[in-house]
User: Fold these one by one.
Assistant:
Number 1:
Amino acid sequence: MTATENERVTPVSIGTARSSGPSVQDFLAVDSRSVPESLLDHSSASQGATDIPKSRYVDAGFAELENEYLWANTWQMACMEVDLQNPGDHVVYDVANQSLIVTRTKDGAIKAFHNSCLHRGTRLRSDDGRVASFRCPFHGWKWDLDGKLIELPAEWDFPQVWQQPDSCLPEATVATWQGFVFINMADDPQPFATYADKLIDHFDRDFDMAGRHRAFWATKEVPANWKVCMEAFGEGYHVIATHPQILEFTADENSEYSIWPDSPHVTRFINGFGAQSPHLAELSPQQVVDAYMAFSVGSAKGEIPEGMRVDVPADANPRAVVADLFRQAMHARFDADLSDCADTELLDAILYHVFPAFAPWAGVGQSLVYRWRPGSTPDTCFMDVIRLAPNPDSGEIPDPASHQVLTLDQSWHEAEAMGQLADVFQQDMDNLPKVQAGLKSTGKRGVSFGLYQETRMRMHHRMIDAYIDAGLEADDRDAAELDRWRVPAD
């Protein structure tokens, strides 16, 4: 066996190999400001090396098990508190085959009701808005904002219903955190504070999401399974082939992926910016800064507008240079003092993930939020992108951005105010239907994830199985129902 072949043998300690070049922790060690303590908390845990059955992405039978046991038993972000400012304000949250009305009650509480009339199942609300009560459009049954039945036409004919305890709209459990509203449809769910403890610990200490306003929000229907879409935004490995235009200022292969065994519902991915990809020959600090600035102003030709180019010393840290430029630009744009923000907070993609499908970015410069939900078939899903901007120091907070909805046939370029991010997102979208189609090939029946860069994905699949297994056991159903799709043990 040659030396090259030796190097390709899977190591005994799976998932310990890392890319050459500086790590995220190396970047943080030379940051020009004090780095948030949370970012120094990183952890890795091997998830094995087995292939994941491709059928998990395409089979209706597996999607049905997810709908019944995953989505009905996990915490999900349903909306933002800013959408529920007054009594009667409500958001319709649809996921899998379930629908909830998340609303503000008269006493200021937030509740989530199953969006189904207790008469014959009609959806009570199809759109977000503000109402004084929830009235069925079919026969007129009506519930108040607390979910209590208050009107039943021809009530004489329903003595078994009127004024009975089960005439109230069934509720899901609600939790709020840093401006977001979460729901869980399980009968007795694990408290959100425990479920998302690592996220809460990090953000409550170092990242003030509540001190920001919603500057952009769009939902797009995507022609791929929700896991295919979610996984496309969970690693930096695809940058070299999908986003080559950002390689000059993106340390793609040097990204950090954290799994905390004591907080399994929370993981993290950090992709460093303002540093070049290890796939390229060495660039000067000037070249890295120029490339980043050209991208930031949306220059397709990589040209920097006159007056914006800065001279960068040969021994400078390009991350520090770009971060300083961002501090100045964001202060002018948002009237917010970011002088104490670390370079990493302004530059890097610091993407946390709360299982199964909520992903908030930490930091300031790249403050995005993602959410994924399954579509009507295993071949479609919905992806939400929200951008949060720092509140102005003046205290005059802009109105929250309205909700834009993009269909399967529309591109991210049609989302107003998305800016140059639309180019990057659309590159991902162009790949996803190809992935979904290729997963149906029977030539190779498994997906081979990387042992470090994609280890969180393998972990998520194992967690999906754990939720389905628990549900099957609780319903006294044979676990063999999952066997044809189950992630093999190593």
Number 2:
Amino acid sequence: MRIVLAHKYFYRGGGTATYIFALLEELQKRGHECIPFTVAYEQTVPREYWGYYVSPPAGERTTHLKDMKLSPLESIKLLGRATWSTEAYRQATRLVSDLKPDIAYVLNIYSYMSPSPIRAFRRQGLPILMRVADFNLVCPGLTAVRQGEACLDCADGHYTRGIKYRCHKGSLKGTAARAMTMWAHRWLRIYDDVDTFVTPSLILRDTLIRAGYPAEKVHHLPSFYPAPPAMPTSAGEEYVLYFGRVAPEKGLDVLVRALALMDSDVPVVVAGGDVDGETQRLQDLANSLGVKSIEFVGMKQRAELDELIRGCLFSVVPSKVHDNCPMSVLESFSHAKPVIGAAIGGIPEQITEDCGLLFEPGNPEAMAAQMQRLLSDADLRHRMGRGAYERLRTVYSVERHMEALLGHFEALCARRSSA
């Protein structure tokens, strides 16, 4: 098949990128041709379809809103682009017309591309499968968090609640703008054009159905991460590791507070890119609590990150939000490392009793107790490490994911052929 992969960022960095580049490799191994459709940032790859990509909203080096220096008029233009991008619609139409793909696999195209390519694909007769990996379709604040607590109150379409609580970065204007685009997309019925939705977690599948998406169109498809052919051996095992975005909703303040309660000085390494100055806030919190064991090392590239995971005792995922399927859990499993995670969102679906420990989200005492338990019991760590590797190899295997995904592709293509 010739498959369009539509995603607003086509460069390495973050959980979705980890998934999409692994997917690209697996599809190509199986003889399928992949056609990226994305935004033309400086670091965007592959480049052979560059002429079909969408122009960046604020220059090829500026990829995120927090770095954009926009005038009021430019902000209004960006809001319009997030609602409906004529350019993205035109480029998607041209891509399908010129390259004749068989199907479109849509990932995150919100904001800088808008969902307008979905309508372009539909009008060109292309079957559409959409992977929903976050709460963008149901939450004006994007992260399903209200005033620091997990929240899905807007899933029924009443986005005024999100505006009331300024759920998008504490901004009334920003939240209202997000809600306006969501109302516009509901009015346009643009997501009706999607044939099938897949979600990496059961909680997100249930949330989409609650939001009014037809149950027969929404399917649970667990993510995947390649497992080594043999269980990896450990190296060093000198520290606890968190890796991922350093953002408020990731619950790293809970980790810092847990460390302040523990009778242990085991080093804790935090690897990941800073979001909105969170690293400095966490460092200030650590200093105020007398926590000296935590170190922020910034974002690491793949080889460096793999070395960090390989050398840790275990990793932690202290999220305060309904994370669907954190790739950091699966990456830890690939190195036979157990994970301590918050019992929220899709995390309890990933971490079972044979491969890690769960704690009440937002509760530093509970997190400290689980960390202390795993630190003091090497046999338990090693047993859970083996269980983590086996869970990755079975439940989150490449073959299982690809078989299910290609099954969806083939069913949609067959339906188009018989129409």
Number 3:
Amino acid sequence: MARRRRKPLPQGAFEAEIRDLTHEGRGVAEVRGKTVFIDGALPGERVRFEYTAVRRQHDEGRTVEVLDAAPDRVEPRCPHFGLCGGCSLQHLAPEAQIRWKQKAMLDALRQIGGVEPETVAEPLTGPVWGYRHKARIGAKLVHKKGRVLVGFRERGGRFIADLGRCEVLVPQVGEHLVELAETIGRMSTPDRIPQIEIAAGDETTVLVFRHLEPLTESDRAALRALGERLGCAIALQPGGPGSIHPLWPEQQSLWYAHPAFGVRVAFAPSDFIQVNPEINRAMVVQALNWLQVESEHQVLDLFCGLGNFTLPLARKAHRGRVTGVEGEAGMVRRARMNAEANGIGNTEYAVANLMEPEPDASWLQRDYDRILLDPPRSGAREIIPLVAGRAPRIVYVSCHPGTLARDAGLLVREHGYRLVRAGVMDMFPHTAHVESMALFVKD
């Protein structure tokens, strides 16, 4: 089959009036009767832009000059903004970012779910720089530059951005990207180390170096010396996630605390955790406040992971029981270990694929006083029909406004719940990610 030819790009710079933002944070304009999504443009602005793609339904472009700036436009803190794909909204003031995210959530609830919250909660906000404690960054030996690059990928591209530092990564790492790159560049096979996993707990930061060839003793010494200089533990990953093992020091302990509940959550470098610890702690407090958990309650925590919500729930329902359900057996194993390490004896766990739930599962044969849902981007559509009605109060934690809206519509229209409250959480400042929480009550 012959390849479809790409349409030629209009040449030169064009002017546009920006009327909105897409869910990816690009300006929306109408140019010559066709919608154009423009990187680096904000609503209310007049910009000069150049085309980057011509498509059937819309075109794409990037801003080359702002002719009339929006009041909320700010100077990006990072000199790599616009090149690096790690952030898309640094040119928008943080308080305006959160307003836009709230609007995105409310628009999705109305347009997709056909529902509106009775109350819009105040946004949860926190630090907007140096907040990211979990990330995976690329490493690449670029022969044309004669050196290794370390960082996120370029916006809209597959190449590693040439970064000197990163303002959103935990500073212990983000301020030292050049040193990371130079260390890899001096190793025996600098072209065979494709990525670095960053995992920062409350006391320890671990850097996991993926390597496709065995390391020499000199390589290992260089990484140990790097860890000592940065104050980071170093781990190696010769294969899949299960191959991760410490290099220096031999004993490595990653954990974060929920001080309001007196618990610690231990995790492995490759485990999923929330990237923003301050927002995560505030999120858990808010979820439990909205649920109104009492000491004798029976609580169901779906997509429980390592126990991020399960352990605090168990502290509140200390004379009841919390059932955590998660699809990955390794995470459930560590959730059990976390409960034991915290001296919590009123939790139980089940391994279950919640995208293809089994209706006869034992944990689905009981009613609960409270349910917490914390699904991935795909949402909780498959499990909702099996748990709706089993508890009068449900809190739904969402990382995608579209699937939250879809599932909210199901809970309200098909299962008789009221959408009592919804609000956004600034888990990923300077990005277009919209994290939110919603409370559903059945009277």
Number 4:
Amino acid sequence: MARRKRKQSLPVDPVTIDITALSHDGRGIGRIEGKTTFVDSALPGETVRFVYTQKRGKFDEGRAVEVLQASHDRVAPRCAQADICGGCSLQHMSPQAQIEMKQGVLLEQLQHFGALQPQEVLPPMTGPIYGYRRKARLGVKFVIKKEAVLVGFREKRNSFLAQIDQCHVLAQEVGLRFPELKALIMSLDAKNALPQIEVAKGDDSVALIVRHLEPLSEADQQRLQAFCEQHALQLYLQPGGNHTVHKVWPQGEERLHYRLPQFDLEMKFHPTDFTQVNQEINQDMIARALEFMDVQPGERILDLFCGLGNFTLPLATRAAQVVGVEGDDAMVVRGRENAAHNGLDNVAFYGADLTQPFDDQPWGQGGFDKILIDPPRSGALEIVSKMTVFKPRRIVYVSCNPATLARDAGELKKQGYKLLKAGVMDMFPHTTHVESIAVFEPE
């Protein structure tokens, strides 16, 4: 019978450490007796006292409890629970230092994985640093022993919900109403059967999607609806999987919307659809992408991983024809809805698994002058490895993962494309998420 490995006991007393670097996930890096130690809430150049949270074979982990010598990049977090809540990891770092770190991560990854340096490093794109987050999934838990309700994000590096009363990065319609939301849940008969509330914001409305594990009583439904009516929120209920989400209040179309005024477009979406969380950055990102695409009136454009048409429809206001391809069939439907809603008839949406061969796909026939790629975190290796099939004169690649962007950029180099420009966009301030954009042309 195999013996269980005994869990290593952790030192109780705080330990002093000098922080010399920052990891890609925002933790300070130092060494204790030659062993690498990652410390939450610590910055390079600082001396801090920390407590161990984990001891491992090759490295240890900890959390700063006192700053003895502060970095000039340190600022006071707006959130009192920033050191504990996993929703943010960098509120203790100045916004300027955050974006410089992200730009450094992008350039380092391009060099490390792709052996590439852009000919031009773009100035970082920045926007609001609080109240920007339009999409979020909030955990909910009724703590029986304390007769209290927790609402919010998980704590850093564990599954417990952080005990917070406000979220300053979340849309203020919800982020500043946690006490009222907790009181509402506490009043429900089914308070022990609500694991999650999803938040989705459009330009004019905010929706709450309440997940419940058992049927709600009529009284509970009335309490939830009354709360949403009082605070001008839309109410959706989710008794099962994603397909069970349905609108309760107010009556009408199950859609939110956001506008792209520069292109005279209005984009409709279901609250569960993927949309960019930061609308101000999204608008600037679309404008930058179209500037780099330099679309001419007679050109045919391909938009890969197009979602509901966030780039596709703006491109269609400039090009002769745009083809959008997306793996999620529901988003393909949404793209077609948005094209019709905006009166655009020079755009076509197709559903396809972009990790699979596309030689016999109708959307893959015919040439394209330029291509825009906006893949998930896994990147677009399978499609960029076939780029010579299309022979585009320009490729604009929008990425949410600098490591896979760098890998794919290396592949594009093999396909005969040079990296003209690259830079970061601060889609998620106070987090280590790195959103970036890169431009390629044939050698």
